[in-house]
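Deviation from plan, reported transparently: (3R)-3-hydroxy-L-norvaline complex.
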Amino acid sequence: MANERILIIGAGGQIGVELTLALRKLYGTDNVVATDIREEHPLLKGGPFRHLNAMDAFGMLEIVKKEKITQIYHLAALLSATGEKDPKRAWDINMQSLLQVLDLGVQEKLNKIYWPSSIAVFGKTTPKQETPQQTVIEPLTVYGISKYAGELWCQYYYNRWGLDVRSLRYPGLISWKSEPGGGTTDYAVEIYHEALKHKKYTSFLDKGTYLPMMYMDDAIRGTIELMEAPSEKLQTRMSYNISAMSFAPEEIAASIQKTIPDFEISYAPDFRQEIANGWPQSIDDTASREQWGWKHAFDLDSMTREMLTNLGKK
Ligand code: VAH
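Because the crystal trials were delayed, the predicted structure below was used instead.
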């Protein structure tokens, strides 16, 4: 790869840890500067790390200049469940930090910027099955509102100043290297930990709650493939639908029972059920498959095998 110098904001999060590791493999460890407001994540100790609060515009500028950064992956945000506990703080953090990154991108003439959106932009008025790339979008959570507003800002900075900012509407992401961070889909990670520890799990989403989901390895590969795609192939500068599978809690339990036959699931829906009820059950990602060649690799059973094997070793 050309001498790209990459800054990761929120490198200690569920996506950040894995994206940092993957980008270090691709661009060279010393060319990927991990930052987070928290302590350095143990898995990232092999490369450059700086403390950075995503709201600190001056600190961000200082790192971009000192480290001669050419690309920013801005992953820091408050997710759906956390956001509903403090809506104004979620809006402030999610929006102000993005606008700072976009301004920096124009001012410092950065090559590319990546910023994640989510299926949380969709609401109850959106078609629930095979949700299209362009459709009725009326988000019901502050997280979803901030992600849709962010998509519109990304498109604006591209149209107005030619800033090459790219984005994916992630489904629920399931990983074992890093912990999920306050999302509604976190049950699909917790269940594997609990299955191995206690052979039982009480799901905070009810039976029959279908949600679009993806194994983290697919999400990381998709992110890099999008960022590596020739700019002229990309027909949207909002955010791309991307998909792998959809399942409900009882289906992930059945998949686990193929390895742990006496695993038991029970249900105790909480406030996150209402959030999940507002989201699509399946996503149409034709645009991603046609425009930049997206193809998922993991299905529920292959993901379950990966999760149980790797968590078992941990
Ligand atoms: C959340 N994991 O639950 C995130 C994601 C589609 C869900 O945006 O908030």
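Residues 79-80, 118-120, 143, 170-172, 183-185 surround (3R)-3-hydroxy-L-norvaline (CB under 6 Å). We consider this an acceptable substitute for the interim report.
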